[in-house]
Specification:
Helices cover 3% and strands 56% of the residues. It contains one helix and 13 strands. With 143 residues, it is an all-beta fold. A hairpin with an 8-residue loop joins strand 12 (119-124) and strand 13 (133-142).
Length: 143
């Protein structure tokens, strides 16, 4: 599970480093948790190869995202199963799940990764240590 310190603002970036177009849908997050998006216009769409999209959001009252089994991104119509959860200490965790033909290849404090369906997916903080923003970075590449 990739671990992020609980702060009020979260930024999720999906980077498509594959040769396939991917679909993204940040509204999957708001379906289960009350969040305020920074820029609601970019919440859903198609991401061509070698492009990225970033969504900023705030969870009210300093809470964390608590969302089980959602697909923020999909490749060839196959959702990349993701879980957002937290500890009693308030840290934010993100896990990529072994579902939909994916197998977990890394599950550490720094990174969560899966492979399957001809792609590799990682979630980490991209080495960014920002005391005001959780910088959640999902990278999709060819297998």
């Amino acid at each position: 599970m990739a671990t992020f310190t609980n702060v009020k603002h979260t930024q999720i970036t999906v980077a498509n480093n594959s040769t396939k177009s991917i679909s993204y849908d940040f509204t999957q997050i708001s379906n289960q948790t009350a969040v305020r998006f920074d820029e609601p216009a970019n919440l859903q769409g198609t991401l061509p190869p070698r492009q990225s999209v970033t969504c900023g959001l705030t969870v009210p009252d300093g809470n964390t995202l608590e969302i089980g089994d959602v697909s923020v991104a999909s490749v060839n119509g196959i959702g990349i199963p993701t879980r957002f959860w937290s500890s009693s200490g308030g840290d934010q965790y993100v896990n990529l799940l072994a579902q939909n033909g994916f197998a977990v290849t890394a599950d550490t404090q720094d990174k969560s990764a899966v492979s399957g369906n001809s792609i590799n997916v990682t979630v980490d903080g991209r080495g960014v240590s920002d005391p005001t923003t959780n910088d959640i970075f999902m990278q999709i590449s060819d297998q």
